[in-house]
Amino acid sequence: MERQMAEPTFIDAWTAELGGPRTQAFLDRCEKLIDWQALTAAVGDLYGPMPDGGRPPWPVLLMLKCLMLAKWNNLSDPALEEQLRDRISFRRFVGLTMQDGTPDETCFVNFRKRLIAIGGASVLFEAALKQLDDKGLILKEGTLVDATIIDAPMGRKKADGQHTRDTCASFTKNHGTPRHGYKANIATTSNGLITDYVFDTAKVHDSQHIDQLTEKETRAVYADSAYGSKDRSDRLFKEGIMNQICQKRVRGQKELTPEQKSHNRACSVVRAKVEHPRAWMVKMGYLGTRFRGLTKNAFDFAMHAIAYNYKRSFSLCGFPLTTPRQRPDKPGMAQLLGLAAA
C-alpha cells in the first residue's frame, strides 16, 4: 500500500499562485500533455505485498515525476531532495502538500534500483514513445542514426594497487583523442524525436548497432560515413530503402566525386536533426556518467531520452514555454479553502 498524501490546507491555498511563472508554465504543460497514469501503469506494482510495520513507500506516480524533474533541471539525487524541500512549484507538481514529508535521496536510489530490476528503462521509454506516436508526432519519413560518447571518470590507482576506474567502461579514440566511457547509439525521426537507442561500452564501433536501430525502417536511413559499407548498401537497395548514408572515399580514390559531395550535402541537411538530442542533454548538464556500471548508466540515459522527447514534443505541438501559466485543472483558492474547511 502506497503512502497517502495529506489533503490541501490553508497554507496550500495561500501559496497556490506562488512560483516562477516560466517554471510553472512548463510544469503545467507537463501535467496537461503527459499521460502520467499510462507511465505509472507501464511499470505496474513495483512494491508488491509490503511486510507489516515500516512506512509505506512513496507513490510510483510521485517518484516518476521526481525522476523527470531531475532530468529537466540537471539535478542529482541530493539536489532533487533539496529542491523538493525548497521549491513550491516542484512540490505542487509531484503532488506534495506543505504538510507532507519529502522523499530523500535514498528513496530515489531504491526506486531506481526497483525500476532497473524490472527493465524499467525500456518499458518507460516505449510507453512514452507510444504517447507521442498516438499524437502523430513520430514521422515515418526515415530513420536518422548517430552515436555519441558518454565520458566516464578515468579513475586513479590506489595505494594498494587497485584502480577506481569503472570496469564496465572502455577506451576508444575520437578524432585521435583518447576517450573513456560508454557510447549511446540513437535513432531519431526527421523532427528530432528519439525512437530507439542502444547503450553500449565506448570501444564498440558505431556501425555495430545501426542495423538493429533501423530494422523496422522501410523508407530511408540517414547516417554519417562511419556507417557505410557495401553489404549494408546492398541490403538497403534490395529492400527498397533509400540509402542516405554519407559516402566516403574508397581505396585509391583521392577525393569524392561531385555526385558524392552533392549526395553528402543532401544527407547532412536532414541528418543534422540527430544531433539535437545530444545537444540538449549537454545543455542540461549531461556531460558524463553519474553512475558505475553499464546497466545503471543505460537507465540514466533512457531517462534523459524520455525527458528530451517530452520537452521536444511540446514545441512540435505548438506550445512555447513562455506563455502565461494556466492551470484549469488545478483547484483554485476557493476550492482549496473549501477542502480545508471540510
Describe this structure in words.
This protein has 14 helices and 6 strands. By secondary structure, it is α/β, with parallel strands linked by helices. Strands 1, 2, 3, 4, 5 and 6 form a 6-stranded mixed β-sheet that branches. Residues 321-342 have low confidence and may be disordered.
Straight-line N-to-C gap: 25 Å
Structural class: alpha/beta
- CATH class group of the largest domain: Alpha Beta
State the share of residues found in helices, binned by percent.
40-55%
Rg from alpha-carbon coordinates: 23 Å
Helix-strand topology string = HHHHHHHHEEEEHEHEHHHH
- CATH topology of the largest domain: the name is Nucleotidyltransferase, domain 5
Low-confidence stretches: 321-342
The total number of structural domains is 2
Put simply, the count of helices is 14
Topology:
Blueprint: H1 10-14, H2 21-33, H3 36-43, H4 60-73, H5 77-86, H6 88-94, H7 105-117, H8 120-134, E1 143-151, E2 170-174, E3 177-188, E4 194-201, H9 210-213, E5 220-223, H10 230-238, E6 242-245, H11 258-271, H12 276-283, H13 294-316, H14 333-341
Parallel strand pairs: 1-5, 5-6
Antiparallel strand pairs: 1-3, 2-3, 3-4
